[in-house]
Design goal:
The protein is 46% helix and 16% strand. The protein is of the alpha/beta class. The longest helix is centred in the N-terminal third of the chain and has 25 residues, at 2-26. The protein is globular, with a radius of gyration of 19 Å. Bound molecules: S-adenosylmethionine.
């Protein structure tokens, strides 16, 4: 059906993200020792503005994530929604800042591929075995569960099933829990993403949500971005042309979150540690600075908190 084709195209987007991350790390924008096990080839060259855009995305998300781990002293959970082939778990293990448990959710088909890679690549499976206390590591085709890391195949638009599976893998709603969504909500309708965000707010009293996605699409540049996605037959249910930083915040404020911030990536980029920004800007010459600015103005990070335990989560920011 049309909707299967659209979902299939959405699933392909996780390859795009990892291919771009693989390329940028091969140029030295940031270090990721594990993406090579999910994307074998470095692949064709990406434009410098694309690499800088990914740099801002990864650094921006990591900065907030690392701050959350610090504030909770790792006595917390992380749930990466639409994680795709993301490698954050392995970075946190290497940096010795693992949460109590790290969950990932994606479509069953993506999860099966990820598990296959983990099973067949010792640098990926070793850290799981090392952090697991018994011999009972669950590793079949469709799910993976260990003491500290778990991958769940589920559709984020089906909340009852999502809830069942998170429970089955021992999520603890009382622990501070960070939800990440990096380029994911845009593939759901505004009602579906609001329902998800609302369910989290009512289920987890101490929580943070970090969302990265497109914003300010209602101009010429935005229309070109949308056409590019549509050319790949993506289901863009969530591309709301009028989505602004204010409406990004509204999604959280109207569904039970206490405090919300949203910044476009142009602003985030200017607030990242500037010595490192200067370093990456020397990696590749960028002729058209305006192109990068336009790109950065069309993405944003929005983060929301609920802080029943009074951990000071609302202080997290750039
Ligand atoms: N978050 C990863 C990253 O930034 O590298 C992957 C981003 S990729 C653009 C979008 C991911 O969201 C894909 O892996 C896709 O399968 C997943 N996704 C989209 N809609 C979903 C849904 N309804 N249920 C589960 N996963 C979904």
């Amino acid at each position: 059906t049309d909707s299967d084709t659209a979902d299939e195209a959405v699933r392909a987007t996780c390859d795009d993200a990892s291919i771009c991350k693989r390329f940028a790390t091969s140029k030295g924008y940031w270090t990721d020792l594990y993406v090579q096990y999910f994307v074998r080839q470095i692949g064709e060259r990406k434009a410098p503005e694309i690499n800088r855009g990914y740099y801002g995305r990864v650094k921006g998300m990591n900065l907030l994530l690392d701050d959350f781990l610090k504030k909770t002293q790792c006595d917390c959970q992380v749930v990466n929604l639409g994680a795709g082939l993301d490698t954050t778990f392995w970075r946190l293990k290497d940096e010795n800042v693992m949460p109590k448990k790290f969950f990932e959710v994606d479509f069953p088909m993506i999860v099966a591929r990820k598990i296959h890679n983990i099973k067949t690549k010792p640098p990926l499976s070793k850290p799981l075995i090392e952090t697991h206390s018994t011999d009972s590591l669950l590793l079949d085709g469709h799910s993976l569960d260990s003491d500290r890391y778990c991958i769940i195949g589920a559709d984020l638009r089906d909340i009852p099933t999502l809830e069942d599976k998170l429970k089955k893998f021992q999520i603890n709603p009382e622990l501070p829990t960070l939800f990440l969504s990096e380029c994911v909500l845009v593939y759901m309708s505004p009602e579906q993403s609001s329902r998800l965000v609302h369910w989290i707010a009512e289920t987890f009293p101490t929580a943070m949500f970090i969302n990265y996605e497109q914003v300010n699409m209602n101009d010429r540049f935005g229309h070109i971005m949308i056409e590019n996605l549509q050319r790949r037959q993506c289901n863009l249910a969530g591309v709301d042309l009028c989505q602004s930083l204010d409406s990004q915040k509204e999604r959280f404020l109207s569904s039970g979150w206490e405090s919300v911030n949203a910044l476009d990536m142009m602003t985030v980029y200017s607030m990242l540690p500037q010595e490192d920004v200067a370093r990456i800007e020397r990696l590749e010459f960028l002729d058209e600075k305006e192109l990068l600015q336009q790109l950065l103005q069309h993405y944003c990070i929005c983060w929301a908190v609920k802080d029943k335990l009074n951990l000071g989560l609302s202080q997290i920011g750039f």
